[in-house]
Design a protein that fits this description.
Layout: H1 16-22, H2 25-28, H3 32-48, H4 54-73, H5 85-97, H6 99-103, H7 110-146, E1 151-156, E2 159-165, H8 166-190, E3 193-194, H9 210-216, E4 221-222, H10 226-229, H11 234-260, E5 268-269, H12 288-311, H13 326-349, E6 351-352, H14 354-360, H15 368-379, H16 383-400, H17 409-415, H18 423-426, H19 429-435, H20 444-467
Parallel strand pairs: 3-4
Antiparallel strand pairs: 1-2, 5-6
Helix pairs in contact: 3-4, 3-7, 3-9, 4-5, 7-8, 7-13, 7-20, 8-11, 8-20, 11-12, 11-13, 12-13, 15-16
Bound molecules: arginine.
Length: about 475
């Protein structure tokens, strides 16, 4: 029986169950590109440092190109018996180029190899997700701009509170997504260091040049300490946390879309592309897309907790437990990227029912606070007294079956003689919305100001990304 390529001391063939437990190829094969890139940089460095010959380097490099081609064309299917993607590629390389392939693993261990591949994967997706968040923000500010004077009831406790505009509501989500974007970019910056050349745990006696491989692979610099580098998975935890937070925001927006598309609200209509029917009720159009986005948030929290738990008791340095770092990250990354793409499409294609939103503002006495503020500012009443007077006005309006904004000056005065004629003006919902003109407030002017600030921010981010 041929010896396994990486088991000098193990003669018996592994049990089928061990393979099933131990082999990570079924999931870590998605790292094939990163693995080949890392190996190419490593081999080049070995040659530059005189550790392998130029001939061996040439064979390794062209062999790795062949392996890459074979994987991408499906000729090398990556569903064999190999333990993981690193062993699979090394085996195939050695089959193609012979002895030179066996020299590739000089001054390297799978510990720094996997730390490198996985980190490259995570950093790339930090960037990819950040870009998708920018795309989503662009669509949201477009909707916000179009709807910056469409009145809607602002809520607290899911009860009508004060009139706002729909654009302003969208801009609240834009603020969340801007923070998300920054988290992904900051994580990428913080973790942009190469672990390659750390070998098993302690470095290597070979004269490696870690700075060369680091810059070839696009990192800022090599990591500081090898013992840390082969066991550190903070970069993976960070992307999981960032995704969990992003999905929490996506889930909250989805929840509002679901609510707003009910017949009770009717504020929006999702495009038919993003709704499904019922198998029994012919009239139904269900908001499956936002429901799925809300539902998928759960697994991203699970993936974060799962890796936290894997890492918490691990002594330094590499332990096989760490192999459990990958599936959750792959799942969260796939979930986040798909969710962002779908959400953007949904935002762009939904219809906003301006009339329904504005009609909803005629319920719930949204401008009650405005009347209290008016009595303070114009009549000089203490706020607490004004608050009680307005409470009486609301009770009176309810008796008449009216909203406070529909009361006549006479009706107002009949509740309290201190209320003057012009008080009526502040009860108008649009005036109420536009009166909240403080910085960051809901007035159309302030909403447009926020949109403008975000547009400038977007340009800065795009220019910064271009320069990289
Ligand atoms: N498949 C392994 C992982 O994902 C690669 C590292 C193996 N290293 C080792 N010492 N067994 O973590």
């Amino acid at each position: 029986m041929a010896k396994k390529i990486a088991s000098a001391r193990i003669d018996t063939e592994s049990s089928q169950l061990l393979k099933e437990l131990n082999n990570s190829l079924p999931f870590d094969r998605v790292l094939y590109k990163e693995d080949i890139e890392g190996s190419k940089a490593h081999a080049y460095m070995l040659k530059e440092q005189g550790i392998i010959s130029a001939d061996d380097y040439d064979r390794i490099r062209s062999g790795l190109d062949t392996v890459l081609e074979e994987i991408e064309s499906g000729k090398f299917s990556l569903d064999g018996d190999d333990e993981d993607i690193h062993m699979a590629i090394e085996r195939r390389l050695t089959e193609i180029v012979g002895d030179a392939g066996k020299r590739l693993h000089t001054a390297r261990s799978r510990n720094d190899q996997v730390a490198l591949d996985f980190r490259l994967f995570v950093l790339r997706h930090d960037e990819e997700i950040a870009n998708l968040v920018l795309d989503l923000i662009e669509s949201l500010i477009e909707v916000a701009e179009k709807n910056s004077s469409v009145l809607m009831p602002g809520m607290t406790h899911l009860q009508h509170a004060q009139p706002i505009n729909f654009g302003y509501h969208m801009m609240a989500y834009v603020s969340m997504f801007m923070r998300d974007y920054e988290r992904f970019i900051e994580s990428k910056e913080r973790n942009n260091f190469s672990p390659l050349g750390c070998a098993a745990l302690a470095g290597t006696p070979h004269p490696v040049d870690r700075r060369l491989t680091s810059s070839m692979l696009g990192f800022k610099a090599p990591t500081l300490n090898c013992l840390d580098s082969v066991s550190d998975r903070d970069f993976a935890l960070e992307i999981l946390f960032n995704i969990a937070t992003l999905m929490m925001h996506i889930s909250r927006l989805s929840e509002e879309f679901i609510l707003w598309s009910t017949s009770e609200f009717g504020f929006i209509r999702l495009s038919d592309k993003h709704a499904t029917g019922s198998s029994i009720m012919p009239q139904k159009k269900n908001p499956d897309v936002p429901e799925l986005l809300r539902g998928k948030t759960g697994r991203t929290y699970g993936n974060l907790m799962s890796l936290f738990t894997v890492m918490k008791g691990l002594p330094l340095a590499y332990n096989k437990d760490t192999q459990e770092d990958k599936e959750g990250v792959f799942d969260s990354v796939r979930t986040a990227e798909l969710s962002l793409r779908v959400l953007k499409e949904m935002v762009e294609e939904m219809e906003v029912n301006k009339e329904a939103m504005e009609r909803a503002c005629n319920k719930g006495h949204l401008s009650a606070t405005d009347l209290a503020d008016y009595l303070v500012k114009n009549i000089g009443l203490p706020f607490r007294d004004a608050y009680h007077i307005v409470g009486n006005v609301v009770n009176y309006a309810e008796e008449l079956g009216k909203d406070i904004s529909q009361l006549t000056p006479q009706e107002l005065k009949s509740v309290d003689s201190r209320i003057d004629e012009s008080a009526c003006k502040v009860l108008d919902n649009r005036k109420s919305m536009d009166a909240r003109d403080s910085e960051g407030g809901t007035s159309t002017r302030r909403t447009l100001e926020q949109i403008d600030a975000v547009k400038r921010w977007l340009n800065r981010q795009k220019n910064a990304r271009k320069r990289e």
